[in-house]
């Protein structure tokens, strides 16, 4: 069987949104080439640094590569894909060139091509993400190895927003907490929470593909097999109280979630939010203050931010 490869040239900021558009359009898998990933490996202070001269990589922006079965009539769906990517500007996302290229791929090539983009990633001294098809030997007894299969739809921790969120979790979690993971995607934040000692973890995502992927990844990690994973629209209708709520999603979506996050947090609870591009920080801070939150810590990597937030207390 042949597959049609559709590549969208965009920006690092828009890769997740573009990936969702392609999956919703009928793609059976997505791979991501992101110039920021190479920069992150070069600047990473943890673990082994990849020799970027040993593999081909995109030099600017990002490319989302989707695979469609040959039964899908591309001329019918490509204009819609292009339009939907263009509409991302309305959400404040820079989309870059929005150039679309197509080609044919044999099934054997499709089944393995996307795996070459993923390598073990040392997020910190204690957290390492390893693609499930690769062997990896921990460097120390206190290193947590998290196995992940992105299912050709989700990343494996190389994006700055994921790294920042994982590092924030490492700062906050002490053991025994109840955690809610909003927009779980691959489930990596839930897995990390369990590795860092969280007692109960609830993972939600609006996308059924994400829910299925997250469940599969929980099963790859024995520590996370008891994580509750379910479809849900952010925190709408969730009545659980959490010690920690973590969300690595777009700034405009975070803003919509803030009132429910306040409701679902314990009085001493912590909100960790990431996926915030620098120019969106001011608007997020306004909504946080209006809803009774104060920023406790701020993490940054290049143009991306993560915030550790607490409920404001009266002096």
From TrEMBL:
The answer to whether UniProt assigns keyword Chloroplast to this entry is no
| Enzyme class of the recorded protein, top EC level | transferase
- Keywords tagged on the record: Cytoplasm, Methyltransferase, Ribonucleoprotein, Ribosomal protein, S-adenosyl-L-methionine, Transferase
Where does this one sit in the cell?
Cytoplasm
Q: Which GO terms describe its molecular function?
A: methyltransferase activity
One GO CC term on file? ribosome
Q: Catalyses which reaction?
A: L-lysyl-[protein] + 3 S-adenosyl-L-methionine = N(6),N(6),N(6)-trimethyl-L-lysyl-[protein] + 3 S-adenosyl-L-homocysteine + 3 H(+)
What name goes with this protein? Ribosomal protein L11 methyltransferase
């Amino acid at each position: 069987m042949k597959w049609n490869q559709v590549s969208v040239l965009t920006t690092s900021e828009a890769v997740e949104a573009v990936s969702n558009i392609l999956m919703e359009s009928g793609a059976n898998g997505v791979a991501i080439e992101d110039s920021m990933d190479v920069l992150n490996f070069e600047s990473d202070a943890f673990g082994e640094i990849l020799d970027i001269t040993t593999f081909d990589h995109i030099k600017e922006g990002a490319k989302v590569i989707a695979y469609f079965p040959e039964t899908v009539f591309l001329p019918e769906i490509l204009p819609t894909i292009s339009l939907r990517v263009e509409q991302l500007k309305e959400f404040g996302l820079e989309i870059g060139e929005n150039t679309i290229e197509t080609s044919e791929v044999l099934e054997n090539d499709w089944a393995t091509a996307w795996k070459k983009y993923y390598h073990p990633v040392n997020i910190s001294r204690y957290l390492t993400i390893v693609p499930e098809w690769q062997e990896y030997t921990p460097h120390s007894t206190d290193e947590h190895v998290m196995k992940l299969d992105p299912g050709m739809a989700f990343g494996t921790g190389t994006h700055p927003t994921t790294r920042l969120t994982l590092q924030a979790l490492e700062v906050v979690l002490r053991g025994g907490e109840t955690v809610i993971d909003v927009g779980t995607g691959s489930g990596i934040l839930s897995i990390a929470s369990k590795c860092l000692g969280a007692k109960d973890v609830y993972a939600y995502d609006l996308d059924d593909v994400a829910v299925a992927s997250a469940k599969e990844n929980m099963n790859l990690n024995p520590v996370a097999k008891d994580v509750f994973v379910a479809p849900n629209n952010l925190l709408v209708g969730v009545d659980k109280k959490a010690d920690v709520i973590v969300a690595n999603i777009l700034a405009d979506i975070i803003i919509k979630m803030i009132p429910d996050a306040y409701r679902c947090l314990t009085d001493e609870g912590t909100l960790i939010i990431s996926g915030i591009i620098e120019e969106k920080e001011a608007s997020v801070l306004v909504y946080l203050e209006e809803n009774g939150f104060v920023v406790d810590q701020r993490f940054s990597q290049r143009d991306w931010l993560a915030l550790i937030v607490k409920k404001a207390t009266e002096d």
